[in-house]
Every structure is written in structure tokens, then in C-alpha cells.
What does this fold into?
Amino acid sequence: EHKFWKTQPVPQKEGEQETEGPIDEHKTPADVQPHPIALPAGFEWSIVDIKKDEEVRGECHTPSLSQIDEVHNLLTENYVEDDDAMFRFRYSREFLLWALTPPGYYKEWHIGVRVQKTGKLVGFISGIPVELRVRNNTFMNAEINFLCVHKKLRSKRLAPVLIKEVTRRVNLANIWQAIYTAGVRIPTPFSTCRYYHRSLNPAKLVDIGFSPLRKGETIARLVRKYNPGEQTKTPGFREMVPADVSQVAALLRRYLGRFDCAQLFNTDEDVEHWFISGMGKEANGKRENQVVWAYVVEDPTTNLITDVVSFYTLPSTIMQHPKYDCLNAAYMFYYASDAVFAPGASSDDAFTHDLKTQNLLDRRLNALVTDLLVMAKKHDFDVVNALTLLDNNAFLDEQMFGRGDGALVNYLYNWSTAPIDGGMSTTAQR
Ligand code: YNC
Ligand code: MG
It folds into this structure.
């Protein structure tokens, strides 16, 4: 059982995580094996230069694929599917660039495996650096994502080789912890989130088998029920712009202080990356290939930013449907609201936990999500997905999100911590 995972510094059993802290004793980069982990014969390592060819693309036609195209193609055909093999994630090139190149990223943590003879990319794993707070400890992590092995090479124990190689490269950077999520259960989760889905296009969702049509329901009635309307309602609700970054960063840092596990967003550049750069560039009055949609509420009297809310796009390929081949899904991303702070408070621990404040927060979050649904509909999304994390329980039911079948399991590598119930968020959850 778990031939690989039982050798790794992860909690081996549930309920054994009593002390908070690293599992392996302290090491230094000098202790790390300087050569890549051995691959089976016929394969070779290849650092994927995902920014290469990016400039070239626009200017002239490149006959060969860019490296980001290769990763995109591998994932499009071989990445995560749902249990019934109806849908498969279809991360866009722009999404992958955004997800893999935050401030301080390491190029050598974008790791590919190629077939030696042909050069074909058949495996991938990636890490990005992210500073986390888990309860009272803050430490650097690698956020591991996009682990993928070509369908024809499954069950050959390639995944452990990829994981060991990314671990080696992360350790060479003097980083000893990692955070990752998976649909599968391995030793040992510190938190589990459920997926919730808010229908925006019920006719299509029913047609493709994503949503059931319950007895006595009609499509026409569902269309009315899930129509979010045309206009946002919160006064001062508008798209986030670069000038908002420092206020949003401060708001987000304070708000995330509420949760047992959260990313720090230490610098404004982090916020600029995750919110603004993800919106893409405007060309001919239109934004192309937008990945992130971010909105703020600017108080009309004080001109201060009181709230922020955001979502990202992650379509899924609909496999084997005669009419549709793409599910346009939006996923709730970060949000924050100053509703939880005592008036005039400025320090990080100035949360007010009384019932009145909770109630105020509930109202504000519901208003924000109501407006987010209007924007998502406007941009032609079929569904908005959310996980049971952050303060999402405050709005999931009221905003008519339905509980899905899927769970997302959260893991830490080389860090032991008592289980965390919902209250968390990191970008690893994309
Ligand atoms: C998984 N998703 O249990 P045992 S999520 C971790 N995460 O080991 P083989 C996984 N481990 O149980 P296959 C895993 N899936 O014997 C499988 N494993 O100890 C373990 N799917 O290896 C598994 N992407 O190569 C078993 O399996 C061993 O050929 C079996 O390959 C697996 O990105 C996979 O779901 C997932 O492409 C590559 O199925 C393949 O099946 C595939 O024989 C579709 O492997 C796409 C998919 C996973 C998405 C993700 C996060 C990955 C986290 C990896 C762990 C990181 C640890 C921290 C490292 C840095 C540390 C520092 C510091
Ligand atoms: Mg394999």
C-alpha cells in the first residue's frame, strides 16, 4: 500500500498530526543530490521554457510548436477528468502562463519528460514558490500543480519519479515544504473541500448531463430561476484596475488573516500578478484571452476600496457530445471585504467575531456574489464553481450553488498540522 508515499515525509495516518511543524529534520541545499533523478530508459528530462516563443508568436509564423503549446496539448488530452469521464479540464495557454510565472518563479521548476527518440512531451510537473501561513507559522512552499503523464504511459510508476525530481529542484532552492491538491486520496490530507456549482446556463447544463432535470422541473423554469439579471446592484461595484492594487493587497492580507491556512500575498506585485496580469491585455478595445475577472467596490463617498471579488476561467472539454464540446466554467477565486473589521481598526488581528459582524459579512458577501454572477453571465459562462473554503458557506445556499460530486483534497509536504476545516485558500486550489 502506497509504496511511494510511505517513503515520503508526509503524515502517514490521519489523526497523528499533533505537533505543528516539519516532519523531516532540517537540511541544506548542500545535502541535496545535484544530479537529476534517473528516468526509465528511452526518456529524458526537459525544462520547459514556457515563455520562449511567446514574443515570436505574434510577429511571425512559427512552424514548430512553442513549449507552452506542448504543455497545453499534453494537458488538453491527458489531464484531469471527472469520475464519469465526461469532462476534462482544458487550461488555456494564457492560464498556464499566468499560473506558472508569478513573481519569483523558478524556470527550472517547470519540468517535462520527453521521449528521447522523438522529443515528444509525455510528462509534466510544475512548482511555483508561495509563502503560506498555516496557523501561526509562515514558511516558503512550492505549490505543485499540473502533474500529468500521457495516457499511454500510466501505471508505470513515472509519477513518483516526477515528484522526486520536482522535490529535488525545490530543495536546491532551500525550500522544504510544498502544498498541493488532488482529486485522489493519498497520505494524508489536512483539509478537504467540496465542489459547488451555480448554474447560469441551465439548458446547456442539462443537455450535456452536468445538471439533472428533476421530475416536475422545466427548462423554462430553471432559466428563470437561475437568471442573475443584467445589472450589478452594489453601489461602486466596478472592474479592478492597476491603481487599485495596493488597496486591494492590504484588504486581502487583512481578510486572509481570518483563516487557518492562507497565502500571504506579501508584496503588491503578487496581487498585481494574480489579479491584474491575469486579466490579459486589451487589444482593439477588447480584452483577449482573459483568465481572471476581478471587481472592487469603491465607496462612493470615501473612494476607498471596501471589497474585492474575483473569478477565473477554466473550461472543460465535453467529451463525446454531439452538440457541445466546451463547458465554459468560471471558478470563484479570492475575495475580501472590510465588513469584518472593527471601524477604524488597522492591525491584522482586528477581526470582530460577534453575531452582528457575521451577519454584516454574510450580507456583503451575498451582495458581492450576486454581482459576480451578473458579470459571469454577461461574459457567457455556463456555470460558476466554488469550493467549501474561505467564507463561502455564507453564500453557497443563498446564491443557489448546488453541491457537486467532486471533492478537492489538500495536502502539505513535510509539514504536520492538525486538520483544517474549510477555512483556507491558496492558489494551489486551481
Ligand atoms: C496525485 N495526483 O498514489 P503510491 S493533481 C500525488 N498526486 O503512489 P504511477 C499521486 N500522487 O500510492 P500514473 C497522484 N496520482 O503507490 C497518483 N499518485 O505510493 C501516486 N492523471 O504512480 C499514487 N493529475 O506513475 C502512487 O501512476 C503513484 O501513471 C503511482 O500517474 C499519476 O497536479 C498521474 O490527475 C496523476 O496524469 C500523473 O494518472 C496520472 O497513474 C495522470 O504509476 C491525470 O503515484 C491528471 C491528474 C494530477 C493533478 C497535481 C498535484 C500533484 C502533487 C504531487 C505531489 C507533490 C509532492 C510535493 C513535491 C515537492 C516537495 C517539496 C519540497
Ligand atoms: Mg506511469
